[in-house]
Write the structure tokens for this entry.
Amino acid sequence: MARALQFSLYKWLLGAEKTFVGLDNYRRLIFEDGDFHKSVLVTLYFTVLSVLPAIALALFVAVLLNGAGLRFRGIFRTIYFVPVVTSLVAVAFVWRALLEPSFGLVNTVLGWVGINGPGWLASPDWALPGIALMTIWRDMGFYMVIFLAGLQAIPREVTDAARIDGAGPWRSFWYVTLPLLNPSIVLAAVIGVINGLQLFTQTYVMTGSPQRLPGGPLGSTRSVVLYIVEQTFRPLEMGYGSAAAFLLFVLIMIVTLIQFRLIQRKFEY
Amino acid sequence: MQTGAKRSVDVAKYMLLLVGAVTMLTPLIWMVLASLKTLPEILAFPPTILPKHVNLDNYKAVFKTADFVRYFINSVIISAISVVSVLLTSSLAGYAFAKFRFPGRDVLFVVVLATLMIPFQVRVIPLYVLASDLNLLNTYGGMVLPSLVDAFGIFLMRQYMMSIPTQLIESARVDGAGELRIFFQIVLPLTRPALSALTIFTLVTSWESFLWPLLVASSPDMYTLPLGLAQFAGRFLTRTDLQMAAATMTVLPLLIVFLFMQRRFIEGMATTGLK
């Protein structure tokens, strides 16, 4: 870490002399580098697109699975969890094919219900949502397991008491279960956001080709990490990438702290 | 006792869960089926479900151009080294933090916790320079370098070992057991659940690791499964049939381990989800 910080102050091709440039790398990144700014926006947008729906869906499924007297609970849990243990690179290629605009399965299914599917990975507007869709599919089971563990820790008496007091299922979920589940939701959100901000593998695999570098079309899927790798390891220029990596770290810290502030309210019961 | 309304709510629940389950499995089933089809069949419109003739030609073609057995062995070697090393260093360091008093212990522990917060991407450039200085690029040593010690593992083991009664260790000491013997025969067996969670977590992370092998491994004989797949599929970008055969082979090993040890996997991931 200290070394990363130190590197970030130099202009330095690996194997050549280091030149001390002070904060110049940071100045260029923050004030001049439009590509870097765009990669920050792309990364934030991806994080929102992938984490929010995945957590909402996972919460929904976890509550369904936690219902009393449900049969086949174990089988459902396993099925929803399976994508988590699949190889990310492999399923990224699978989704690349599924999202193919003309023959891909996703647009075929959309066609059945009368929707003319977008160009997904070929379109600057839809490439990132496509990658987010794949990420939601893969991560949902992980959040679900966290929520199931949280739900099981809520004593039955509490929800029963709410019901006796006349709360319907919806009210008891909203006013009793959800607040009690708050720690699990914070945990899931923090993990999800940290992962989201480090987006790399999906976009590298799903948008690269021999003709063009990953991150396209038009840089619409170039995440911060992808940008760091591009800037650092193609010319082996260690300083500039280190500075960008350090800014990413600061971004992750800030977003995580904000999350703790926003979501972690204390509930008493 | 079930009323009609309750029953219809139940039916709706199962329908929802079933639709969700089908959605979750479809990409994986599609992958396996596509790996058995010919390219025109995959591209056919309207899409077909089952392959006309089941044949393994795609798999044979993959093996002819890329050495997936080698990638698999590399992945196994690298994951095994990481798991053994992380278990050993985490439990030793965790034990020291939990049960020994030494000057600077608390400061040191805070330093360990602080490194937990630093994403891999920030460490990757210094690590790369280190690997390059040590001449470890494109070697197994370089490949496992970042995953030998894990701050999260140290944290997990320390928390778990705090719950072991100190009297137990002291009475063993009084009985004349040496420090190593206490560690291996008394402390470690008591931390089995934490060790198993850490094993699964380390296995999955190192098996899945992509960015680091991508940077460090430059020759195909050092490729791991994910990297080998990415390079292979990148070369045959239009050959979805071959890609899916290679993808299936990459997904299978961990999936099989998961299906055999489901409960431990799910519990382990939920515990270590802290990371």
